């Protein structure tokens, strides 16, 4: 329950900050399956500041819609810094938004490896204003718990990072 309230409060605060700046946001999601977009659109008035989302569960969607390099998918895997940065950049361009978040991870219960255990999630946050270059920050997280818990932690952290990014840009 506390996690749900935290997610809801973060989404509400994000919406308020985006609305003040007249900015638009978007998401590119793999392991969360649209959970970030769902949290955002649960906020009344989200249509004023949310453009849309791409749930890119399959690598084909990452390549075809988000312009992720097939070579990087093969070399580094979908759960990697290289891929999540390209997902963020790709969805930002696709949606013509100011702020984007992208997530790719292993929510479990299966799919983990010694190198990338269950709970490994890469998150990237991207920002662009008009023709300015895209600024992208990416971090790897190691969340714990079952699939739902890993997904909820990813959603919360994705929203936290978006809010921090937006607030770093003065009105």
Automatic annotation (TrEMBL):
Segments forming domain CinA C-terminal: 11-163
Annotated Gene3D superfamilies: CinA-like
InterPro entries in alphabetical order: CinA-like_C, CinA_C
SUPFAM superfamilies the UniProt entry points to: CinA-like
Domain of life: Bacteria
Entry protein name: Nicotinamide-nucleotide amidase
Organism, as annotated: Microbulbifer donghaiensis
């Amino acid at each position: 329950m506390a996690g749900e309230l935290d997610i809801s409060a973060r989404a509400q605060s994000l919406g308020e900050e985006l609305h003040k700046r007249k900015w638009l946001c978007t998401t590119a999601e793999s392991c969360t399956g649209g959970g970030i977009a769902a949290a955002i659109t649960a906020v009344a008035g989200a249509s004023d500041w949310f453009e849309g989302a791409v749930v890119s569960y399959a690598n084909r969607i990452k390549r075809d819609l988000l312009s992720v390099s097939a070579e990087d998918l093969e070399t580094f895997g979908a759960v990697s810094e290289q891929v999540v940065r390209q997902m963020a950049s790709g969805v930002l361009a696709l949606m013509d938004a100011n702020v984007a978040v992208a997530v790719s991870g292993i929510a479990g219960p299966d799919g983990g490896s010694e190198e990338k255990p269950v709970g490994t999630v890469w998150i990237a946050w991207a920002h662009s204003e008009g023709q300015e270059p895209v600024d992208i920050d990416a971090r790897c997280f190691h969340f714990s718990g079952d699939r739902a818990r890993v997904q909820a932690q990813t959603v919360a952290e994705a929203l936290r990072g978006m809010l921090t990014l937006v607030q770093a840009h003065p009105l």
